[in-house]
Specification:
The complex is a heterodimer of chains A (276) and B (611). Chain A has 276 residues and is mainly α. Chain A folds into two domains: 8-108, no CATH class; 127-264, Cytochrome Bc1 Complex, Chain D, domain 2 (Orthogonal Bundle). Chain A contains nine helices and no strands. The mean pLDDT of chain A is 88. Chain B has 611 residues and is mainly α. The longest helix of chain B has 37 residues, at 574-610. The chains are: A mainly alpha (276), B mainly alpha (611). At the A-B interface, helix 1 and helix 2 of A face helix 9, helix 10, helix 11, helix 13 and helix 14 of B.
Chain lengths: 276, 611
């Protein structure tokens, strides 16, 4: 007996439905498995929309690149519309606009959810800081000699003295960090401080490769110094609880905090590249 | 003197923006199409294929009216700038004084060469060397004009020759011209213009194809569309690398500008760009796959298309994913941290570099499948006559070894911190392994196992440049981001060497193979719409990236030197940008349609005279 094959139209529709259901209901289990914890982590609505659109694009590309495949796909639709069972025809003709109408209505009706917000990852650094470098990481020869005298380092090489300076400043920064930053950003700079759960948008995890490792040190200095009040409107300053530390600490202390943040997170600041 | 004026109360910035973008699109047209026409003509002379000569001539017909349009829009742009931004232009003319005269002289030179190249076509049929020489001169003027224009815009982003204390320009024209971003911009624009030229020829051919009445005409325009798409894809492959180089140099010239570009206010424009480029890649592949229908024997390979489609769409999805997915408050609470897992991994450069390289490899693989669709029984390498195949293989091997081994050693010798060194050693080892794979592929080809050689190279590149280095990128981001710049270039070097060597092996392997006929003209209309779509997408991408490049200066005419104090110095929203870029696209295509129509009048006249 000849095995009955499902036609290409239905294969396409079923494939779409399966992949969509996987996005919607399968991925939360995968995300939970990766992240751990008790809660399922959904694929956000914007992500679901984006990937579903791509799925439709992929399917359209596949069914339409060849005349044969395209005919296999739309042939059953044309045959159904022309010669199909009349009762089924009218059911489809009535249900299809209703489903689309219901979908549009559901999408556009007022809902009791907070709006989707676009957030800027790294708000623009003020131009005045464009050429500023951490003076503690790049000390002048005079500063190095002064430090040598203060710490009685004798005939130690200049590079070693510089490293000793950086180590000292970083340690001082660590003390400031643990006193002021750890409640939110955590002892290990992983964004898991004891107060972190109290925020709607959790404090930044500095150990994340996409966080402070991708910006120059001056950027961290600016964020610590100016906090959320200086953020431009598109960066949603109301989504940040970062205080402006310029009222409590000097620039030098803030540079030390920035150095400590990188050190604790085992990250390195982004280095401006040589201009070619 | 007023610093700013208006035309009829219009927003001066938008007026200049629209005119500048339209001028730039036409300028790209008259730069790219001569490069294209000259290359096609030269290939025609070498191969003796009359179709090539006809194609080059047909393309040149489009140029005469397009050149007038470029000059007209350039004139309007000049007047607009001098009238609306007089103080800014006073500064620019003071800096580029002599350079502007050289620009004008080059324009006259280009005009003379263009019209001579076009009108002497028939008369120089017996003296092709002279004609190609004129074509070369035409292109030389075109590229020089582009480079001079680029020096003005790149100076506005990274001014040089400036006294840092007073802000006054104290340098020479040459210093101002050779500013930091000049060369990266030259490279990026030149390659992008070639892509644009390819796709505009493709779109022209598609429109003509759909209006054809005879089989011969259809075959001609189908073939022309294929050539246009081939050039477009060919140039599009190195374009992401050139874009990466430009972006890197923008970051180097100013970390503030770099931060605004990739992480700040303009970061969302790169998501829009990812959509456009992703569809460009998918569209270009779609056209190749559709083109396989005109080749008998392609059935052997069409079964792979679903996998290629899947890979490209997966790469597209990763490239598209922003680091900060837009979320509702409820979703943020459920996620429990700043980034969703998807955007945490897919949203950063390590992942994006990996998928861009995979997308390029896949596109090249599609092209190889297309190329071998009409090829059957091959002649073993050892039984082929002639030394050309050896020379080709060894030149390609020498070049690719120079790229991989040379760069590997230069990484080992790089001056970086001690803790970064071990990470660089690993990258160098990958390059040396790639060099071994390249040698292995050549040895296999010489041993009549060219296909295995190609697979070996694809596998080593995909595993190392995409998989291993994609994951290693995350390690470097966290522990040694200084090394990331070497990683990205290494990925590029591996992919480029794979492409070069595989193309040469393919040419050698199939050089004496039995072939079937390609049925030119046997294409469905959807494929022609794909060609038009590619051109539309390219125009939109150029408009978008023009906005980004210019917008990065924010409220500066000349970055950190001359402030824009006009009422229009704010950064437009994404919404406003899409309107302006969309409007530019519509105006450009309306004007281009007019150019095509005008050139078709000449064709009709020629036909009438022939009858």
């Amino acid at each position: 007996m000849q095995k009955k094959r499902i036609n290409f139209f239905w294969v396409t529709i079923i494939s779409f439905v399966i992949v969509y259901l996987f996005f919607k209901f399968g991925t939360p289990f995968i995300f939970k498995g990766i992240k751990g914890g008790d809660n399922l982590i959904p694929l956000p609505g914007t992500g679901l929309l984006m990937y579903t659109m791509l799925l439709i694009l992929a399917i359209f590309t596949y069914i339409s690149f060849s005349a044969k495949k395209f005919e296999e796909f739309y042939g059953p639709i044309v045959r159904f519309l022309r010669d199909g069972n009349r009762a089924a025809y009218w059911i489809v003709m009535i249900i299809t606009p209703l489903v689309i109408g219901f979908g549009v209505f559901s999408w556009t009706k007022p809902k009791s959810v907070s709006p989707t917000g676009i957030r800027i990852q790294h708000p623009g650094l003020p131009g005045s800081l464009g050429t500023v470098e951490n003076p503690l990481r790049h000390p002048s020869p005079e500063d190095i000699e002064k430090f040598r005298g203060e710490e009685n380092l004798g005939s130690m090489g200049e590079e070693e003295v510089k490293l000793a300076m950086i180590e000292k400043y970083t340690n001082e920064g660590r003390a400031l960090y643990q006193a002021n930053c750890h409640p939110c950003h955590g002892c290990a700079a992983d964004g898991n401080g004891p107060q972190a759960d109290g925020f709607r948008l959790r404090p930044v995890n500095f150990t994340d490769p996409g966080a402070i490792a991708t910006v120059v040190e001056t950027y961290v200095f600016w964020r610590v110094k100016e906090g959320n009040p200086s953020l431009p409107p598109e960066s949603t300053p109301w989504d940040s609880a970062m205080p402006a530390w310029k009222y409590d600490y000097s620039d030098e202390q803030i540079w030390k905090i920035a150095m400590a943040a990188y050190d604790i997170a085992h990250a390195m600041p982004r280095m401006p590249e040589e201009v070619h | 003197m007023e610093a700013y004026n208006t035309f009829f109360g219009l927003d001066s910035r938008i007026v200049v923006w629209i005119i500048a973008q339209i001028h730039l699109l036409f300028a790209a047209f008259v730069l790219a199409v001569p490069v294209f026409a000259l290359s096609v003509e030269a290939i025609g002379v070498k191969s003796g294929d009359k179709r090539m000569d006809d194609l080059a001539h047909e393309l040149t017909k489009l140029l005469s009216s397009a050149f007038s349009m470029t000059a007209a829009t350039g004139g309007i742009l000049g007047f607009s700038l001098f009238c609306l931004y007089p103080e800014f232009m006073r500064y620019m003319t003071n800096v580029f004084n002599e350079g502007m005269f050289i620009y004008a002289l080059c324009f006259i030179g280009e005009g003379f060469c263009l019209y001579f190249y076009y009108y002497s076509w028939d008369r120089t049929q017996n003296n092709k060397a002279l004609h190609i020489g004129i074509g070369g001169l035409l292109n030389l003027f075109g590229v020089t004009l582009m480079m001079i224009g680029n020096s003005w815009t790149s100076f506005m982003m990274s001014p040089s020759g400036i006294d840092q204390e007073t802000g006054e320009f104290v340098g020479t024209v040459w210093e101002a011209t050779t500013n930091f971003l000049w060369q990266p911009l030259n490279i990026h624009r030149f390659i992008a213009n070639i892509v644009f030229g390819g796709f505009i020829v493709g779109a022209y051919a598609a429109v003509k194809f759909m209006g054809c009445k005879t089989k011969e005409e259809k075959a001609h325009y189908d073939w022309m569309g294929y050539i246009g798409n081939f050039v477009g894809i060919g140039a599009m492959i190195p374009l992401p690398f050139a874009g990466y180089f430009l972006g890197r140099e923008v970051y180097s010239a100013s970390p503030v500008m770099g931060n605004i570009m990739m992480g700040g206010r303009f970061s969302w424009t790169f998501i829009v760009q990812a959509i456009l480029i992703g569809i460009l890649f998918l569209g270009a592949n779609y056209y190749l796959w559709a083109g396989m229908e005109r080749i008998k024997g392609s059935e052997r390979y069409t079964k792979y298309i679903k996998y290629l489609n899947g890979i490209i769409v997966f790469c597209f999805a990763v490239w598209l994913t922003p680091h900060n997915l837009p979320l509702t408050g409820e979703e943020r609470s459920l996620i429990g941290e700043q980034y969703h897992i998807i955007s945490k991994y897919f949203g950063v450069m390590a992942a994006k570099n990996a998928v861009v390289n995979l997308m390029i490899l896949t596109t090249f693989f599609s092209f190889l499948l297309y190329r071998r669709s009409n090829k059957f029984k091959t002649v073993p390498f050892t039984q082929q006559q002639g030394s050309g195949k050896f020379i080709a293989l060894f030149v390609a091997l020498a070049f690719t070894l120079f790229m991989t081994v040379g760069y590997g050693f230069s990484i080992l010798g790089a001056h970086v911190d001690v803790e970064v060194k071990p990470y660089l050693s690993f990258i160098s080892i990958c390059l040396f392994i790639q060099a071994v794979a390249l040698i292995g592929a050549v040895v296999l080809t010489i041993s009549n196992k060219g296909l295995i050689g190609q697979w070996l190279l694809f596998a080593s590149t995909a595993i190392m440049a995409v998989l291993i280095m994609g994951i290693y990128g995350f390690v470097l981001m966290k522990n040694a981001n200084m090394a990331l710049r070497f990683l990205s270039v290494t990925q590029v070097a591996m992919v480029i060497t794979c492409l070069i060597m595989n193309a040469v092996i393919d040419a050698v392997y199939y050089s004496k193979a039995e072939t079937s006929e390609i049925e030119w003209g046997k294409m469905h209309y959807r494929s022609q719409f794909a060609l038009i779509l590619l051109c539309v997408l390219m125009v939109m991408t150029m408009g978008l990236m023009g906005y980004v490049r210019s917008g990065l200066r924010e409220n500066w005419h000349i970055y950190a030197v001359l402030k824009d104090t006009s009422p229009w110095s704010f950064t437009p929203t994404l919404f406003n940008m899409t309107w302006v870029v969309g409007l530019v696209m519509v105006i450009f295509f309306a004007l281009t349609s007019m150019v095509f129509w005008l050139s078709s009048l000449t064709g009709k006249k020629d036909e009438a005279e022939a009858h």
